[in-house]
UniProtKB/TrEMBL annotation:
<dbReference type="Pfam" id="PF00984">
    <property type="entry name" value="UDPG_MGDP_dh"/>
</dbReference>
<dbReference type="Pfam" id="PF03720">
    <property type="entry name" value="UDPG_MGDP_dh_C"/>
</dbReference>
<dbReference type="GO" id="GO:0003979">
    <property type="term" value="F:UDP-glucose 6-dehydrogenase activity"/>
</dbReference>
<dbReference type="InterPro" id="IPR028357">
    <property type="entry name" value="UDPglc_DH_bac"/>
</dbReference>
<dbReference type="InterPro" id="IPR001732">
    <property type="entry name" value="UDP-Glc/GDP-Man_DH_N"/>
</dbReference>
<dbReference type="InterPro" id="IPR014026">
    <property type="entry name" value="UDP-Glc/GDP-Man_DH_dimer"/>
</dbReference>
<dbReference type="InterPro" id="IPR014027">
    <property type="entry name" value="UDP-Glc/GDP-Man_DH_C"/>
</dbReference>
<feature type="binding site">
    <location>
        <position position="86"/>
    </location>
    <ligand>
        <name>NAD(+)</name>
    </ligand>
</feature>
<dbReference type="GO" id="GO:0006065">
    <property type="term" value="P:UDP-glucuronate biosynthetic process"/>
</dbReference>
<feature type="binding site">
    <location>
        <position position="270"/>
    </location>
    <ligand>
        <name>NAD(+)</name>
    </ligand>
</feature>
<feature type="binding site">
    <location>
        <position position="126"/>
    </location>
    <ligand>
        <name>NAD(+)</name>
    </ligand>
</feature>
<dbReference type="InterPro" id="IPR036220">
    <property type="entry name" value="UDP-Glc/GDP-Man_DH_C_sf"/>
</dbReference>
<feature type="binding site">
    <location>
        <position position="159"/>
    </location>
    <ligand>
        <name>NAD(+)</name>
    </ligand>
</feature>
<keyword id="KW-0520">NAD</keyword>
<dbReference type="InterPro" id="IPR036291">
    <property type="entry name" value="NAD(P)-bd_dom_sf"/>
</dbReference>
<dbReference type="InterPro" id="IPR008927">
    <property type="entry name" value="6-PGluconate_DH-like_C_sf"/>
</dbReference>
<keyword id="KW-0560">Oxidoreductase</keyword>
C-alpha cells in the first residue's frame, strides 16, 4: 500500500514509521519545513523511545521518506491520513479543527488534480463527532464522491510507549460504511491480523466518539483514584492498597489507578473539554466528565499548596518566600519531552508566586519547558539540581529518580524535605533516612 501521513508530530511520525515498518510505502508530510529538514538529515524532532532506530531502518530500506510537498507525496497514494493537531480552541474549549480543515482542502485539491481512481482519506487526529462529515463535504466540493471516501481511524497510542502501542494495540477502530474504503483499511492493518488484534469496523460517527469516550473514561479513572487519595489522607488509609483492592476486581481493572498530581498531556485535558462542548451542543450533557475536569484543574493547584504546607510544617511555620525548591521532572509523564498541560506548569508558577526560587531538572523536556517556564534555573542532572535547595519535589516519575542515593540527597539539601507526588518512595524508608516526607494518599 502507498500511504501518506499528513502531520509528523507524535502521532503522525510514529504511525508513519510503523506503517512503513509493516512493509507499506509511506511518505510523511509536514508543513513545518524545519521538521522535514531535520528528519531528512537523520534527526528526530521529538523524544520517543526507539523512534530514531525505527526511522533510520525504514529510511534505509526506502519505504519511508519525508517532504513538505503534499502533491508530490500524494502521487499514486491509496490512503492519505490526517494526523495534524487538534488543540483546544482558545477561549471556548472546542477542538480547533482549523489544521484538519486546511489539510483537507489541500488534499482535496490534489485528488482533483490527479487521475487517481479512488483515494481513502483517513482522519487519525482526534476529532469531534461529525468532523468526518465536514471533511467529506470539503472534498466533495472539488472531487466526485465516487473517487474518494472519508474514514475515521482514531489513534490510541501513548507517548513514551508509542511504538509498542501502535504495533500491538488492544484494538484498531475503523469508522466507515464504504466497502472499498474498508478493504483499503484492512490491507493497511493486515500485519496486525497475525497478532489477532481486534479490528472494530463501525460507522464514522461512532468511531469518532469512541476516541473521546475512551479518553474521558481514563481521565475519570485517574481523577477517581486521586480523590480517593485525598480521602485516604483525611482518614489515615493507604491509596495504593485501595487501588490494589479495587483493581483486582476484573470489572474495575488495575490500570490507571495510580494517584498523582492530576492528569496532563496533549490529550486528556483537551479531549475531555471538547467532549463536554460536543455534549452540550447536542443538549446531552456529560456531567461526570465536567466534574472530572474541574476536580483535575483544582488538583494541580492543590499540589502547590501541599508542597508549601510540607515545607512550612517542617519549619514549624512561616512560608516559602525566599526558599529554594528543587523540582525533579517537568514533562507530563516519563519517557516523553511533551510539556503540554503538564502539572508542573500549574505547580511551579504558584510556588514562584509565593516567593520561592525554583531549580529544576528533567532528562528530556527542558528544551520544551524553557519558553513555558522561563523564570527557573535549569540544571543538568538530578543531584546538581538539589545542591543547597530547601526541599525537593518529584513531579514526574522518570526511572532515574526511582533509586536516588538518599544519603547523598540529604547531604546536598539544606533541609531534608521530600515531596513525592508520584509515590515512588516508601514512607518508612524516607523516615529512616530522616526526611520530612510527603506523598499522595499514604500514611507517613
Ligand atoms: N500525542 C498523543 O499522544 C496522541 C495520542 C492519540 C491521538 N492524538 C491526536 O493526534 C493528533 C495529532 O497529535 P500530535 O500530538 O501528534 O500533534 P503535534 O502537534 O505533535 O503534531 C502535529 C503536526 O502537524 C503538522 N501540521 C499541521 N497542519 C499541517 C498541514 N496542513 N500539513 C502538514 N502538516 C501539518 C504540524 O506542523 C505538526 O508537526 C491530535 O488530534 C491528537 O489529539 C495524539
Amino acid at each position: 500500500m502507498r500511504v501518506v501521513m499528513v502531520g509528523t508530530g507524535y502521532v503522525g511520525l510514529v504511525s508513519g514509521v510503523c506503517f512503513s515498518d509493516f512493509g507499506h510505502d509511506v511518505v510523511c508530510v509536514d508543513k513545518d519545513e524545519k521538521k522535514i529538514e531535520m528528519l531528512d538529515a537523520g534527526g528526530i524532532p521529538i523524544f520517543e523511545p526507539g523512534l530514531d532506530v525505527l526511522v533510520s531502518k525504514n529510511v534505509k530500506s526506502k519505504r519511508l521518506s519525508f517532504t513538505s510537498d503534499l502533491s508530490e507525496a500524494m502521487k499514486n497514494a491509496d490512503a492519505v491520513f490526517i494526523g495534524v493537531g487538534t488543540p483546544s480552541r482558545r477561549g471556548d474549549g472546542y477542538a480547533d479543527l482549523s489544521y484538519v480543515y486546511a489539510a483537507t482542502e489541500e488534499i482535496a485539491q490534489n485528488i482533483a488534480a490527479s487521475d487517481a481512481p479512488f483515494t481513502v482519506v483517513v482522519t487519525k487526529s482526534t476529532v469531534p463527532v461529525g468532523t468526518g462529515d465536514e471533511v467529506e463535504a470539503i472534498i466533495a466540493k472539488h472531487v466526485d464522491p465516487s473517487r474518494f471516501a472519508v474514514v475515521s481511524n482514531p489513534e490510541f497510542l501513548r507517548e513514551g510507549s508509542a511504538i509498542t502501542d501502535f504495533k500491538r494495540p488492544d484494538r484498531v477502530v475503523v469508522g466507515t460504511e464504504n466497502e472499498k474504503a474498508r478493504a483499503v483499511m484492512r490491507a493497511i492493518y493486515r500485519p496486525l491480523f497475525i497478532n489477532e488484534t481486534p479490528i472494530l469496523f463501525t460507522t464514522r460517527r461512532t468511531s469518532e466518539l469512541i476516541k473521546y469516550a475512551g479518553n474521558a473514561f481514563l481521565a475519570t479513572k485517574i481523577t477517581f483514584i486521586n480523590e480517593m487519595a485525598d480521602l485516604c489522607e483525611a482518614v489515615g488509609a493507604n491509596v495504593q492498597e485501595v487501588a490494589r483492592g479495587i483493581g483486582l476486581d476484573k470489572r474495575i481493572g488495575s490500570k490507571f489507578l495510580h494517584a498523582g498530581p492530576g492528569y496532563g498531556g496533549s490529550c486528556f485535558p483537551k479531549d475531555t473539554l471538547a467532549l463536554t462542548r460536543t455534549a452540550n451542543e447536542h443538549n446531552s450533557p456529560v456531567t461526570i466528565v465536567q466534574a472530572v475536569i474541574d476536580a483535575n484543574n483544582q488538583r494541580k493547584s492543590n499540589m502547590a499548596d501541599k508542597i508549601m504546607r510540607t515545607i512550612t510544617a517542617h519549619h514549624g511555620g512561616g512560608d516559602v518566600s525566599g526558599k529554594t525548591i528543587a523540582i525533579l521532572g517537568l514533562a507530563f509523564k516519563p519517557n516523553t519531552d511533551d510539556m503540554r498541560d503538564a502539572p508542573s506548569l500549574t505547580i511551579i508558577p504558584r510556588l514562584i508566586e509565593a516567593g520561592a526560587k525554583i531549580r529544576a531538572y528533567d532528562p528530556e523536556s527542558m528544551k520544551e519547558a524553557k519558553p513555558l517556564l522561563p523564570d527557573i534555573e535549569y540544571l543538568d542532572n538530578a543531584y546538581t539540581c538539589l545542591e543547597g535547595a530547601d526541599a525537593v519535589v518529584i513531579i514526574t516519575e522518570w526511572d532515574e529518580f526511582r533509586a536516588l542515593n538518599m544519603t547523598r540527597v540529604k547531604a546536598l539539601l539544606s533541609a531534608p524535605i521530600l515531596v513525592d507526588l508520584r509515590n515512588i518512595y516508601r514512607p518508612e524508608t524516607m523516615k529512616a533516612h530522616g526526611f520530612t516526607y510527603s506523598n499522595i494518599g499514604r500514611p507517613v
